[in-house]
C-alpha cells in the first residue's frame, strides 16, 4: 500500500480536497440559510404576542400555516426556538425519514428536582440507550402481534363498565375512567382495582396529577417548550412549583415501587397470571439482572399515566360525538344488531364485520385529538430541510396535529364535522387512512397505540350495543343543547356535558347483563361508586 505511487497520493489528495471544499460549501450555505418563516420576534419575549390564546397554542400554530404560506414555521418563544410542523408530509420527512436527528426530547434542566421525578418516563426520556431499553420492553408487550392476547382482559373490563352504567347512568366520566384503570392495572400488574379509591389506583393517579397538572410531563413540556405559558398566568408561582417538584419526586418513588413490590409478593405466592411485569421479567431475565428489573419496574409504572387519561378522554370525545350525532349512533347500532343480534355482546371477532364502528373510532381520533400538541421532539443536530436551516440541540419541534393535520381541509373536507363516512370506501369497507397522527411519529410514536386501539374499540362498541345516549331534557321536555367545550393541557377532554344515557332494551338488568357477559358478574361484584 505504501508503494502505491504518485497516482494514489494525487487521487487521495484530490478526494480530501473535494471533501473539504464540500464541507466548506455546506457550512457557508448553512450560515447563509435562513430558518423557516414565522411570526415577528421581539427581544426577550420573542413571538408570544402572535400566539393569541396561550392556553391553546395549536390554534395559532394552525393559523401560521396560512399566514406564512408554509408547512414548517419557526418562532422564538421566550428565548426558546420552536419549529412548528404543520403537515403530514413534513412530519413524515422529518420524524420518519430523518428519525436519527428528530427523535430526541426537550432536555429538562438536571438541576431541577423535576428531572428526577420524571426521568423514568419514556415519553420524555432523551434519545439514548436507556430509552432504547425501555422502548424494547414496551415493544415486546405491545407490538401488534401480541394484542389479541389482551382481548379477554379488555372484554372483561368493558363488561364491568357496562355493569357500572346499569348501576348509575349519570356518572359517565367515572365509568370510562374506571374502565381504563381496570384494563391498565390488570394488563400491567395482574391487579384488579376494586373502585376509584383503590389504594394502588390512588398512588398512580396522584403521580399522574402531579406529573400532568402540577409538574412533570405537562409542566416540564410547557416549561421547556412553552415557558411563556408558565410565565403568563399568575396561578403558577415559583414557590408552589418547587413544593410540587418535591412532592412529585416522592410520588414518583411510590409509583415505581409500591405496585411492583405488591406484584412480586403475589408472584412469590404463585398467585399471579400472565401480565406485562410477569412476562417481561421472565422473558428478559429480570430476576437475575437488576438493571433489567429496574427498567421493567419503571416502564410498568408509566403505562398507567400514558394510557389512562389519553384513552378515557378519547372515549369522552366519542360520547360527545354520539350525543351530537344521533344519526351516526343509530347507524352504528343498526350495524351492531345486524351482525351481533340482541342475544350476545360484541366480541373482538366481530370487528371485521363492523367497519362503521372502526370508522367512528378513526373519526373520533381525528375530530378532537386528545393530545393536540403531541409530545414535542427535539433535534440532536442541526439540519437543512427544503432549503431551511433547522437549529441544533435546543430546538423544540412541535406537532400541532390537533388541527393542522387532522383538520387539513384538502384531506378532510369540512374538518369540523363529525363524519365517519370519510374513512369508508363506496362499498362500505375501510379506507387505508388510519389517522396515526393522533399517536405521534417516527421512533417515538406511541408504543401503546395498538393496545389503545383495541381498548377503545371494545369500549365504544360494547357501549353502543347496550346503551343509547340522548340530549338531556329540560323542564319542558325539550332537549338541552350541547355546546362542546374542552379542557386545556397536554391531554384535553370535553368538559362535562348534560346527556341522558338509557339502556337500549326493555328488561335490561343486572341479571340479563350477567347472562350476556357470561362472566358471572353480579351487582355485588360490579364497581361501586
Ligand atoms: C388514545 C390513547 C393514546 C393516545 C392518543 C396516545 C398518544 C401518544 C402520543 C401523542 C405520544 C408521543 C409520540 C411522539 O413523541 O411522537 C405517545 C407516546 C407514548 N405512549 Fe401513548 N397514547 C395513547 C395510549 C397509550 C397507551 C394505552 C399506552 C401504554 C399502555 C401508551 C404508552 C406510550 C408510551 C410509553 C409513549 C412514549 C413513547 C416513546 O417516546 O418512545 N400510550 N402516546
Structure description:
- By secondary structure, the chain is mainly alpha-helical.
- It has helices at about 5-30, 55-65, 90-95, 100, 115, 130-140, 150-165, 170-190, 200-215, 215-225, 225-230, 240-270, 275-285, 290-325, 325-340, 355-365, 400-405, 450-465, 510-515, and strands at about 70-75, 80-85, 375-380, 385, 390, 395-400, 465-470, 500-505.
- The strands form 3 sheets. It has a 4-stranded mixed β-sheet with strand order 1-2-6-3. The protein has a two-stranded antiparallel sheet with strand order 4-5. A two-stranded antiparallel sheet has the order 7-8.
- Helix 7 (about 150-165) packs parallel to helix 18 and helix 14 (about 290-325) runs parallel beside helix 18.
- It starts with 5 loop residues before the first helix and ends in a 12-residue tail after the last helix.
- Mean pLDDT is about 85; it is low at about 215-220, about 225-240 and about 520-529.
- Bound molecules: protoporphyrin IX containing FE (HEM).
- Protoporphyrin IX containing FE (HEM) binds near residues 310, 438 and 452.
Give the SSE map:
Elements: H1 6-32, H2 57-67, E1 72-77, E2 80-85, H3 88-97, H4 99-102, H5 113-117, H6 129-142, H7 151-167, H8 172-189, H9 199-214, H10 216-225, H11 227-231, H12 238-268, H13 276-283, H14 290-324, H15 326-340, H16 355-367, E3 377-378, E4 383-385, E5 388-390, E6 396-398, H17 401-405, H18 449-466, E7 467-470, E8 500-503, H19 510-517
Parallel strand pairs: 2-6
Antiparallel strand pairs: 1-2, 3-6, 4-5, 7-8
Helix pairs in contact: 6-14, 7-8, 7-18, 8-14, 9-10, 9-12, 12-14, 13-14, 14-16, 14-18
Protoporphyrin IX containing FE binds at residues 122-123, 135, 138, 302-303, 306-307, 310-311, 314, 370-371, 374-375, 377, 438-441, 444-448, 451-452.
